[in-house]
């Protein structure tokens, strides 16, 4: 690793080793070729990838349908709340899941990755079981917080293992394939959830609790890299009477380094966009996107009868429409199948360039999402977002893992949750409020009912989530015709134009950081 020059005096002399440890490395290291990089990945890397896949399968089984569960009327087993009310859960969930790793990431460095992964798995099982046992707003709220806490402890141990199990010359491929395993789980999770929720909502949560339990078997074949080094360092410190700093003070010290916190702050814009895809887009697809054109193109106008096809595409019981989680699963499917190829592409690019290009593509895709109610356009937008995600998100984790000091890898990868905390928390409140203001089908339905002569007090008394069906019955029109009428008289796409604008600002910020950091950390 090259040694940083002194950024304060602007001279070319090398700093001592202590300064090198302080600043880490942001160098772009030449990467191995596609097949050489894959062949160089270790046994531990594949084990930890499998554990991440299982965890994500369970996690996205809930995440992919959480918005739909919240919007579903109580009469159908859902929570029957508005998007804004659900946004309170999302924002709190985001804070707990994303801020805790800032202070708990160091636990894995100190006490062992295997131990923290095991504890986190137990906690996550508890979260899913709470959701299944208490099917109320506050029951789901409590389950989400427990699940968030378990995820916060799980992530640093997994990602710290990955960094220690790879080298600088294969890190792009390693993070790309790791992201691919994440999305194998992300692809399968919604399939399971889509199947289970057709029977009963609680089965979704019970299934996810069972799935995450498989990681206890994976822990039997997991071997922590660098364990001997960690134990030896702890024994040496104990023998020398060294008193270690508290994790909180040590984390704060690392966070205040001037090349660390701006990076985390700027990238929060990407995570704002990313989480809107899973928190707000399902509602948009369910309310406004007509997927019948996709089904007609692929299978003809009669729809699908095969239960196998319905399962993998995630369709309604009649096989005539694709459910929102099925549409979103295109994202996970594309990443699952092609991320290693885009990892090779991003490996040929500078890290900052890859992140900028990816963020721009993600922003464009969100604008496309609001441009039309056509199903095929929605598929195209999700595909463009997926490419942007593959170029930016793995590179973000790789970049911070590379400039982290060698004995603080898990801690720094815990820091990587800070932009997620900022972006997801803001999106959880702002994104859902934007949707309620610009795109709430339930609100628009109540307004049109009153305009057409329905009693205003009676309209207000309709249970949340049921106003649209009441409007269809009142007008004696089909749901698709009423949807088209509401879409033509409102502008639901405005939500996505705002989201895309945030992506553009984020891309500019990442580009600026790349120029600025080269000036303060001259190599």
Short description:
By secondary structure, the chain is mainly alpha-helical. The chain is 75% helix and 0% strand. The protein starts with 16 loop residues before the first helix and ends with a helix.
Would you give an account of this structure?
The chain has 523 residues and is mainly α. It has 2 domains: 41-231 and 245-439 and 492-520, Growth Hormone, Chain: A; 442-489, no CATH class. It is built from 26 helices and no strands. Helix 5 (113-133) packs antiparallel against helix 6 (137-164) and helix 13 (268-279) crosses helix 21 (417-438).
Strand proportion, as a percent range, falls in under 5%
* Tally of alpha and pi helices: 26
> Could you please say which CATH topology of the largest domain applies here?
Growth Hormone, Chain: A
- Proportion of helical residues: over 70%
- Strand count: 0
Give the low-pLDDT segments.
1-23
Keywords:
globular, 0% strand, disordered N terminus, mainly alpha, Growth Hormone, Chain: A, 2 domains, 523 residues
Task: Detail the topology: elements first, then pairings.
Blueprint: H1 17-23, H2 34-39, H3 43-71, H4 83-111, H5 113-133, H6 137-164, H7 171-197, H8 201-212, H9 215-219, H10 227-239, H11 247-255, H12 261-266, H13 268-279, H14 281-288, H15 292-299, H16 307-313, H17 324-347, H18 351-369, H19 375-403, H20 409-415, H21 417-438, H22 441-451, H23 456-461, H24 467-475, H25 479-489, H26 494-520
